[in-house]
Amino acid sequence: MFFFSAVNHPGRGPGYATPLAAFKSGTREEIVYLPCIYRNTETKKPDYLATVDVDPRSSTYSQVIHRLPMPYVGDELHHSGWNACSSCYDNCCRKRNRLVLPSLYSSRIYLVDVETNPRRPALAKVIEPEEVISKTGLSNPHTTHCLGNGDIMISAIGDGEGGGKGGFILLHGENKNNDLKGNWEASGDAAPFGYDFWYQPYHNVLISSGWGAPRALMGGFDPEDIKKGEYSQSLHVWDWTTHKRIQDIDLGPDGIMPLEIRFLHDPISTEGFVGAAFSSNIIRFFKTDDGKYATEKVIDIPAKKVEGWFYPEMPSLITDILLSLDDKYLYFSNWVHGDIRQYDVTDTSNPRLVGQIFLGGSITTDSGVKVLEDKELTSQPEPLYMNGKRVAGGPQMIQLSLDGKRLYVTTSLYSGWDKQFYPDMVKQGSVMLQIDVNTATGGLTLNKDFLVDFGNEPEGPVLAHEIRYPGGDCSSDIWMTHTAKL
Fold first, then answer.
1. What is the band of 9 on the pLDDT scale with cuts at 50, 70, 90?
2. Which PANTHER family is this protein grouped with (predicted)?
């Protein structure tokens, strides 16, 4: 699918020259970073950043080896991102040395030094919510991406008063403090909702997705809020140069709650996928001959008719998606149904299911939920036990190794929704698992030698969320230049 050289030129900036250079690098992850959340649990302590050893040669394999607590209680750390990535590959002045930790609830932004001692990160800077809101009119920051010019951009989902607002916070890349710079979007062009984003400078475009208004989603999920218009069902297309919002794509009922959005990694690509969580669909977006973007539903996960659950129909709730660096496989998690799926997307309009694994969820045989009608399964899956402990929750955040052979999984979505859908997980703590991937023909197998049980943390059970590798990964690195221009 790619037309790239796999050469990784030494002496330049962070990351790799091309996605395939990363894919073929032979670099294996040894540690990962995860935000760990205490908000909505019984422990009234600050959230922290955990460092986990994922090197099977190590004596501390699959253990938390360091914890960096934040200075405040109740932040709700969520997603994280880098101050520099492969988008800065041609800039030898840039280094991937700070992990950016936005707080979804408090709107505070932390920057963490991961260069001085990668196994023991240290807090480098705090940007207080008052500064974020007063300088940008935005709140509830979510996704972080570095830009090719060195600046750091963070999407926001709120307006500071509980309403939805899809804008972008910029941090300076050229000064060591990474001070708050202002807004990226042109004045008055913020979208009604915000969540995730991906950019393709080769085609002068950024596309963003939307979750919902903070006043609706922060306390828990109520489907009535969808009818009230408190959740998104649109994608937003932006001109990369002018920062203007130039197109809104209404996904309709097939696209309620479009969350994680992924262009193909190939920087000349004009297409990608977004997971519509509540509608439980994968939507393909693509550029048309007239220069605009269009969408089509390419994967539909049927809801299950059930009794003994909150509602008579149970959506799968697609909560995270990613693409392998060779753009061959699409992976996503069905947090409520409890499975992870692997699709061959060589033909992007016709994904082909090649791997599936159940890791808990809400329809296990011991869940108390009875499935009355299921268009996919003939029986309810068994619960997952690891080291004699039943795993609570369902697969949620996923991260793939550079070579595509290992898929890491955590089970917490967001503490307010965890408390509603999986109260046992909030009491017991979430887990981190590892799936072995068949990259030749497809297939997913649980690695039973790997388990990080966040129920055993020193301050009490905690909810671990998104996974980041120090050297970059499938969902944080963006490539800027086609090989022909290298």
1. very low
2. METHANETHIOL OXIDASE (PTHR23300)
